[in-house]
Amino acid sequence: MPKEPSRLPETPPPAQLKPAARRQIGQSLRGLYADSLSAPMGQRLTDLLAQIEKPDR
Predict the structure, then answer these.
(1) pLDDT band for position 38 (cuts 50, 70, 90)
(2) Residue 39 and residue 45: Cα distance in Å, rounded?
(3) What is d(CA 28, CA 37) in angstroms, rounded to the nearest whole number?
(4) Whole-prediction pTM
(5) Which site from 9, 27, 28, 29 is most exposed, i.e. has the minimal number of CB atoms within 10 Å?
(6) b/e per residue, 35-50, with b = 16+ CB within 10 A?
(7) How far is CA 19 from its chain centroid?
């Protein structure tokens, strides 16, 4: 008798966060990264961005 292929268990739906939890996480992340976002970019990153923005020839 042929063996039936095994079935993978169904993936549960992604967890939903309450709006208050989402706000708290957002505020925490903004606080952690505020200094990084306001810091000037390094020259290497500036050069790489300039290369990306050049139109193809």
Answers:
(1) confident
(2) 13
(3) 14
(4) 0.46
(5) 9
(6) eeeeeeeeeeeeeeee
(7) 19
How many residues are listed for the chain in this entry? Answer: 57
Contact 25, 17 (CB under 8 A): yes
Q: Which long-range contacts (CB under 8 A, 24 or more apart) does 17-24 make?
A: none
Determine the Cα–Cα distance for residues 3 and 15; give it in Å rounded to an integer. 35
Would you state the pLDDT for residue 2?
62
Task: Say how many Å lie between the first and final Cα of the chain, rounded.
Answer: 63
Task: Give the single-character DSSP code of 31.
Answer: H
Residue identified by tokens 């996480």 is 25
pLDDT band at 37; cut points 50, 70, 90:
confident
